[in-house]
Design a protein that fits this description.
- The complex is a heterodimer of chains A (408) and B (89).
- Chain A is an alpha/beta fold and 408 residues long.
- Chain A has helices at 15-20, 22-25, 31-40, 52-62, 95-106, 124-129, 141-154, 181-184, 197-200, 206-223, 284-292, 305-308, 321-332, 360-371; strands at residues 42-46, 66-70, 111-115, 133-136, 158-164, 167-173, 232-237, 242-247, 280-282, 298-301, 317-318, 352-355, 379-382.
- An eight-stranded mixed beta sheet of chain A has the order 3-2-1-4-5-6-7-8, sandwiched between helices.
- In chain A, α14 (360-371) links the parallel β12 (352-355) and β13.
- The termini of chain A are far apart.
- Chain B is built from two helices and seven strands, in the order ββααβββββ.
- In chain B, the strands form two sheets. A five-stranded mixed beta sheet of chain B has the order 2-1-7-5-6, with helices on one face. A two-stranded antiparallel ribbon of chain B has the order 3-4.
- Chain B is globular and about 35 Å long.
- The chains are: A alpha/beta (408), B alpha+beta (89).
């Protein structure tokens, strides 16, 4: 790392830089040398989204000499609730281009290297090898495991941040000095237990909190000041507004970092669904044809009320998964008869098509309904969910979600 | 009574409560009482009696693997934190 460079090897700061970074330079723990180390240093941001936005802006502003951005996506309207490096003016543009423009505006001297690609088994080592510090701001488990394994193999520190709903996590995984990500979480959850932000939601400011902390850790690693979060994980709860640091252990039999580094082989992590498949499935085209033909089937949107308001299939009955699961639990425990619950809206002798955003939650509802005595051969899961629906939509404001009348 | 600190991804099983007081003399016992009758919650945390590979449990801020694992004793004022891996970014 650049922190090991001797003083004469560190780049000099010009007059403009001395003015720009004056608030850093007067910090006794930081000073001129740390600023020169930042200028000599480099960071690779995997993901230029919620976490990557504040990290990219703060690292550029702080004077990190060279910053790489890895993200294959373009800016979408739904990103702007939290991805503050982007804006309306860059909708539809590559995220790396959008973020780079903001970073240059903050600090024209920073060298920005754009990588508009998915990080994959084939490119991960080449991309990561060229930087001092890696910052994991991705939005999916397979990439997180790939980032971890590549960093362990190359001996790079991985500044990890993760967010969901109101919860955040932060740690520095450096297998040379402490646990790696796989020591803590050897494998990803099965897909039915792993909602992403699009499904479970995320408070917009949450990645701002965690991303800013990732930038802090990256600056500490590049300059050598302070104590990095190695062997510890910061757990943030936005609802209670609590920050808790927990001590985390290196796993003696870690599937990644317990053996020789050069024997680590990168492999693709495949998310698998461990729950048994119950019921039938139907493709969007087939459902559209059946609805157009006026068939008497019941269509149920099991997503949450906030998702219904963002658009749904016009014929759908809106019954959320939590409400249906509660109804099934009440019936199975003998507390209520089915006709006195939401299940009254779901005929047992006709075909029912259920959907959520991706198909995971509706699959779980089909398992619940089967446990409650519904014939699984009459229950269909819409393949790829509402995300894969290409037919007519009731857009926001066009129609109120249809719900059954409350039971008397 | 020991308290279980519940991550938001599991609060749909706890009426959105972030802290749940349960009895138990070991981490295993408190977790067993915590999951109670909910087969969905049990399935989320355990697989064939073992903690799932994406769940970490801490007692008073320490990973129980640094202690005695699920057999770690639990006292009345202890806090048991469940950490679930999250991938959002």
């Amino acid at each position: 790392m650049s922190a090991r460079l001797t003083d004469p090897a560190l780049p000099e700061l010009g007059a403009a830089e001395l003015r720009r970074f004056s608030r850093h330079l007067i910090l006794p723990e930081f000073g001129l040398e740390a600023q020169r180390r930042l200028k000599a240093g480099s960071a690779l941001l995997i993901g230029a989204g919620g976490l990557g936005s504040p990290t990219a802006l703060y690292l550029a502003a702080a004077g990190v000499g060279r910053i790489g951005l890895v993200d294959p996506d373009v800016v979408e309207e739904t990103n702007l609730q939290r991805q503050v490096a982007h804006g309306h003016s860059t909708l539809g543009r590559p995220k790396t281009e959008s973020a780079a423009a903001r970073m240059r505006d903050l600090n024209p001297d920073v060298v920005i290297e754009r990588h508009d690609v998915f990080l994959n088994v084939g490119n991960a080592l080449d991309l990561i090898a060229g930087y001092d510090v890696v910052i994991d701001g991705t939005d999916n488990f397979p990439t997180r495991y790939l980032v971890n394994d590549a960093c362990v193999k190359l001996g790079k520190p991985n500044v990890y941040g993760g967010v969901l709903r109101f919860d955040g996590q932060l740690s520095v995984f450096d297998a040379r000095r402490g646990p790696c990500y796989r020591c803590l979480f050897p494998e990803p959850p099965p897909s039915e237990l792993a909602p992403n932000c699009a499904e479970a939601g995320v408070l917009g400011v949450l990645p701002g909190v965690i991303g800013a902390l990732q930038a802090t850790e990256a600056i500490k690693l590049l300059t050598g000041i302070g104590q990095p979060m190695i062997g510890r994980m910061l757990v943030y709860d936005g609802l209670d507004l609590s920050f808790t640091s927990v001590d985390i252990a290196r796993a003696p039999a870690c599937p990644c970092c317990s053996g020789p580094r050069d024997e680590i082989e990168l492999r693709e992590t495949v998310m698998v669904c461990s729950a048994p498949q119950v019921g039938r499935s139907i493709e969007a085209d087939a459902l559209q044809a059946r609805l157009a033909g006026g068939e008497a089937l019941t269509l149920v949107d099991v997503r949450n009320p906030s998702e219904w308001l963002g658009g749904t299939i016009p014929q759908a009955l809106c019954l959320s998964k939590p409400a249906l699961t509660e109804a099934v639990d009440l019936v199975l425990s003998g507390g209520l008869r089915p006709e006195n619950t939401l299940l009254d809206a779901l005929p047992r002798d006709r075909e029912i098509v259920l959907y959520c955003q991706s198909g995971l939650r509706s699959a779980a509802v089909i398992r619940s309904l089967t446990a409650a005595g519904y014939d699984p051969s009459l229950l269909y899961n819409l393949e790829k969910g509402f995300a894969g629906w290409t037919g007519p939509r009731a857009e926001p404001g066009e129609a109120r979600p249809r719900q059954p009348a409350p039971a008397d | 009574m020991p308290v279980i600190l519940v991550p938001s991804s599991l609060r749909r099983y706890t009426d959105q409560q972030s802290r749940v007081a349960v009895t138990g003399e070991t981490v295993a016992g408190t977790l067993d009482n915590f999951v109670g009758q909910s087969s969905e919650l049990r399935n989320h945390i355990f697989n064939a009696g073992n903690l799932r590979s994406f769940i970490v449990v801490c007692k008073n801020g320490q990973d129980i693997r640094l202690l005695d694992g699920l057999a770690t004793p639990v006292a009345a004022n202890d806090e048991i934190r469940i950490l679930a891996s999250i991938a959002g970014g």
